Amino acid sequence: MMLILTVIIVDLKIFLWDFYQEDVREPIGSFVGPRSNILNLTFSASNRYLFSGGIDDTIFQYDVSYLGSSRAQISARSPDDTCSLHTDTVRAISCHPSQDEVFLSGSEDGSIIRHDQRENHPSRAQNTLRLKSEITGVQYHPNMEYIFLTSEQSGAVCLRDERMAFGPLSRRSREGIVQVYNTKLTRRGISSLSNPEASSAAFDHDGSRFAVTMLNWYPAIYRISDPHPIAVCTGENKPDGTPVPAEERSYSNSCTMKHGSFGGPGLESDEFYAAGSDDFRGYVWRLPSTAELVNQRQEVSSNDWENQGSAGAETAGKEKKYIPTSISTPLCRLTGHNSIVNTAVFHPHFLHIVTSGVERRIVLHSPTPSSPCTQNLPASPAEVRQLDADGTLDRLTFNQALIGAFTTVGEPGLAEDSSERRTIRMFDHILREEGDLDVFKARRWVESDESSSDVAVDSDSEDDIEF
User: Where is the composition biased (Acidic residues) (predicted)?
Assistant: First the structure.
């Protein structure tokens, strides 16, 4: 059983929380600047700067090195710097693992920009990598300072070297790619492949493994040196191991941008992975060792593939089919939300997970009622909200949003609970329309599709993988 702390967020401010307080109940300060939904927040290497990016195409930078002063001094603080080089939504910001002044940003405009604030007159062209698809994720490797991971709307996931990706054209090579990861799926009996959107990607703390969140599919676990996934995390079973009944919703990712994370109780390796779901829950899976996952992964020749009785889907290739280990029983399911959960983040030191999503709230989850930063937490609810049998009001609310009859952001004249209910209804309608999409119908792939994953590199591109 998990215990929860719920905090309501009602505007476009960024709130900062001190988890070294004895009983966290309110933020220690706030920051302003964003004009629309905030999609990502990240600290620089030594926590000197806080960066924010989102739908307003702008990156906001805040100097938080002064923390320790009074709360009044950090109330509604404006950004110390802004960057407006992108022309579309900023989907990801990743800070260099050791240099506070260096960070990467990725945008739906198809560009990845390397920012180095130590340069007096940086060349925009030399610090920009333009791809053919929208960028959904960019992540520096936590230990190798020149290496970074990218994910794209096209489904491509690539490991890149910034020494090959940026700089004069004469020094660039293969868009910086040093490894292409297999994300195409195939299913027995279906002639076409699928390339689900890679919605985001996240490294574990030592960079030996990473996870890719896939739209209309499951989180896939990779080891950095292997182009094929070693595991997928599903919600086929309940935490007690019993199958989820057919009429009950379980893990799914069809309707919103999701971000997962690795974590663990201060161990040498991250033992857990957490992610949000369309069924109004967060999920936590315990991951076996990499060696164990690789040993359990099946490799099937193309000749044997059609004769096998196993079910599932696989990433595409021509010589072999790789069937990753299925982690079908989550360690636990996190409740406390009334709508879709988008993000799940582990605290780096405490046994806490924070989740957020469609609602104007964040929820802190703990395995115990008290900890160094929380006291007397209530138990998580056993059940989650179900969709109403009649979706008429949800459909009307969604249609109103389409024609601009109302907005869900920045509504000072409306009661907070009324705005919240309308937002939930709107996403309830989206769930009804898109919540059960088949990835092989929603995202069919043919060889003429162009993306970064089509760049020729030394990898097993002729092999397939089954999930």
Answer: 448-467
The residue among 413 and 193 whose pLDDT is bigger is: 193
**Collapsed DSSP state (helix, strand, coil) of residue 98:** coil
CB contact burial 390-414 (16+ within 10 A = b; e otherwise): ebeebbebbeebeeeeeebeeeeee
Structure tokens at 414: 């409306």
Structural element, H or E, at residue 83: strand 81-83
Rounded-to-integer distance, Cα 204 and Cα 189, Å: 35
pTM more than 0.85: yes
Residue 408: how many CA atoms within 13 Å on its side-chain side?
Answer: 19
**Cβ contact 343:258 at 8 Å:** yes
Report residue 218: phi and psi, to 5°.
Answer: -115, 160
pLDDT digits (tens, 9 = 90+) for 401-451: 777 665 555 555 445 567 788 889 989 998 988 888 889 888 887 665 445
Q: What is the pLDDT of residues 243-280, one digit of tens each?
A: 999 999 999 999 999 999 999 876 677 999 999 999 99
Phi, psi of 166 (to 5 degrees): -120, 170
Tell me the residue type at 182. N
Q: For residue 79, what pLDDT band results from cuts at 50, 70 and 90?
A: very high
How far apart, in whole angstroms, are the C-alpha atoms of residue 310 and residue 153? 29
* Contact predicate 116/104, CB 8 Å: no
Phi, psi of 282 (to 5 degrees): -105, 155
Q: Output the CA angle 228-215-273, nearest 5 degrees.
A: 65
